[in-house]
Amino acid sequence: MTDLLDLSEGLISGRLSIDDHPPLALTGDATLHELAPGVGFIESFGNVTALVDDGHLALVDAGSPFTAGAVHTAVRGWSDAPLELAVYTHGHVDHVFAVPEFEAEPGAAPARVIGHENVPGRFDRYRLTNGYNGVINQRQFGLAAPVFPDQFRYPDETYRDELIVDVGSLRVELRHDKGETDDGTWAWLPEPKVLCTGDLFIWVSPNCGNPQKVQRFPWEWSVALRRMADLGAELLLPGHGLPIAGADRIRSVLSDTAELLESLHAQTLELMNAGATLDELIHTVRVPEHLAGLPWLQPVYDEPEFVVRNLWRLYGGWYDGDPSTLKPAPRAQLATELASLAGGASVLADRARELSEAGDHRLACHLAESAALAAPDDVAIHRIRKQVYVARMREERSLMSKGVYRWASSESGRRVDELDSD
Question: Which domains does the chain have, with CATH numbers?
Answer without folding.
Answer: 4-261 (3.60.15.30), 329-421 (1.25.40.880)
